[in-house]
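Researcher: Go.
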Amino acid sequence: MTAIQVPTVTSPPHPLAPMTPEDINVAREVVTSAGLVTASTRFVYVGLDEPAKSEWAGSPPRRVRVVLLDRDTGVGTTAVVNVLTGEVVDSRSIDVVAEGQPGLLEEEFDEVEGILLKSPEWLEALAKRDIDPAQVRAVPLAAGNFELEDEIGRRLCRILAFVQYDKADSPWAHPIDGVCAYVDLIEKSVFKVVDDKIFPVPEERGQWDAEPHAQPAVDLKPIEITQPDGPSFTLDGHHLTWANWDFRFGFDVREGLALYNVTFTDPDSGDVRRILDRASIPEMVVPYGDPQVSRYWINYFDQGEYLLGRFTNTLELGCDCLGEITYVDAVICDESGHPRRIGNAICIHEEDYGVLWKHTDLFNGMSETRRQRRLVVSNFATIGNYDYGFYWYLYLDGTIEFEAKATGIVFPSAYTGPDGFATEMAPGVGAPFHQHLFAARLDIAVDGTRQVVEEVDAVRVPVGDDNPHGNAFRQQKTRLVSEQQARRKADNFKARHWLVTNPDRQNRLGQDVGYALYPEGQPTLLADPSSVAAKRAAFTTEHLWVLPYDAEQRWPAGELVNQSPAGLGMPEWTAGDRSLDGEDLVVWHTFGLTHFPRPEDWPVMPVDYTGFILKPVGFFDRNPSLGVPKPSGGSHCGHR
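Model: Structure:
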């Protein structure tokens, strides 16, 4: 294909630097010149086509991956563009039946209320309920794939609706339940209305500050967090250094935050030690447990179907982040192919985190305390009713933690009684039982790329000659040597965790250096194994998957998740049951919340938390935080 002329680049960007406005503009011009764009084409996804790890140290081609949708025909296209040479290096049409549809568009969301108003069946359903169509707010939801004959090949969404009585009213408080519209997004028409049951529309208002929810202000005095000498980290573009940590971070419109080249300078040797080559949360699914005819299909893939990153919030000092804050903007592509900047998208700051270590000794008079501190890299996104925070924490003792925060408004239904599948939140308002399940992709590289994974359980030792009093217990380690064997579930009764070690490097005690993944151990997917949710979101059926590194294996439920068929992603990747012993490995971890909503979650839900921890196990020769300075400000936290 013919290359277009592109601006001269004097210094190529870092291979992992996020997309720039120039990258997006060049990509748009290239695919347009190549004849892949018409007046009805929309840019569904534009993201950095990351080079393989073997290319990171060099100057690999700067490539951008593009997913296009022709809104008139429904034809989808994927393309890869070299933005340095102005060439399309790969393109193909999407087989929407075998692969799935491109993700949903905001433009499509904006059109659905108008489409519904043209549907006699929909208007009849509202009339049966004495509802004014002008007061109806439509919520377009990903349809999934149930292999229904009249849906095969269609680009569609399913619509649940709510009443909004005035501009200040929260429509979430007034669900119109028992009826659902199926919309063909290419024909722009309703092709089916499922009208199963009539429920009264709850009348009580749901704004957080309106009766009956308005409350007197709580008397809290201000908290001020100051760092008069400024933060302890250094930021150069997307390269961060803090304490002994050094890493890069990026942002993708689908995946959100990612960390790269995470290293820690060993305080004993001065060596720069590899820990993570890459870490991200590339998918999340929210399966609902309400089997009603109008609701059984609800299981959103917020990243794969909706591209959650495009709904990233602009953060505000004192509200989302507190203290000495550094903000970083994010650049994404809008649906017309032009760059859009999200200001203050990423928040970077330090937090005091209590005591790091402490001891008062009765023999030698030691009395020492050190304060723990963590570096925080975070962002928040709002998708419909829910708001999600994504927080990466790095600690002074070599610990890495990820935490997801879920808040916002629970997705309401009619309350069908105590034998149903929802909690009553307000008179007549139900909140169905559901889960929030996340996939972490952890390219752990403990001092190199040859890794071994062991499952570690706490086990009792039977009473016997070696344990006559029955008090003994030990660790039981099971080496995971193949992909199928490494499909594992957490077990909190055994304090189960997974240890990744490097067999080629040992600490001063002769132990293989390692990092351990400590799971929360909450339930995996609760839907039946035969369900569509279990087949399309197979990654949620295990807490642990381990695969040999493959740069192309980035999306655990498949590249095109919207209306995707069963079995894509993790099941097909692991079908070959490849060997894991001593390979360059990627650890995939499923974690999340099982939410039985409480009345206290209404009308706005307090934050709920979920995540995991990575801790050094034999990676260092001793406590790596011995050199943390004593607290300043005239305190007496250390003396002998």
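Model: The two ends are 74 Å apart (CA to CA).
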